[in-house]
């Protein structure tokens, strides 16, 4: 059983930075990709960023490109999301997700259904 635990959320002023972490435990040996999604108040969950676990190729939503950076530490089975120049519209619960089946490479890294496991989420609030 895979468990994903997010941390690093909190309250920050607009223009500030936060770094989210997601530690994976369990069947991590066959990880193909990890991603970050978010769900703002009254909104549907949306793709933020993803990283191919083996080669490290990264993918971003247009809304965060140039401000957010995803990275991974394979030894620690951890993925990070560095968020800079935060805006109030970045306020959301942020979820990490793991793909163990390789579906992200065939379907899309942006598609929720391509991921097999999800964390519980961490709240990020950006004040204006």
In total, the number of strands is: 11
Could you state the oligomeric state of the chains shown? single chain
Strand content is over 45%
**How many individual helices?**
1
Provide the structure class.
Answer: mainly beta
Overall pLDDT metric: 95
Helix content: under 10%
What is the overall silhouette?
globular
Biggest sheet features: 7 strands, mixed
Q: How many whole angstroms does the radius of gyration measure? A: 14 Å
Q: Ranges with pLDDT <50 over ≥5 residues?
A: none
Secondary-structure element series: EEEEEEEEEHEE
What is the terminal separation in angstroms? 40 Å
Summarize the SSE layout with pairings:
Blueprint: E1 3-7, E2 10-13, E3 18-25, E4 33-39, E5 46-52, E6 58-60, E7 68-73, E8 78-83, E9 92-99, H1 103-106, E10 117-118, E11 122-127
């Amino acid at each position: 059983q895979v468990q994903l635990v997010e941390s690093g959320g909190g309250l920050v002023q607009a223009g500030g930075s936060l770094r989210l972490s997601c530690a994976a435990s369990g069947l991590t040996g066959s990880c193909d990709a990890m991603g970050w999604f978010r769900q703002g108040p009254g909104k549907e969950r949306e793709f933020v960023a993803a990283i191919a676990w083996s080669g490290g190729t990264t993918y971003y939503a247009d809304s965060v490109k140039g401000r957010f950076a995803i990275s991974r530490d394979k030894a620690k089975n951890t993925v990070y999301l560095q968020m800079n120049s935060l805006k109030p519209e970045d306020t959301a619960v942020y979820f990490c997700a793991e793909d163990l089946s390789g579906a992200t490479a065939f379907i899309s890294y942006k598609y929720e259904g391509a991921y097999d496991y999800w964390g519980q989420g961490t709240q990020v609030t950006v004040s204006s």
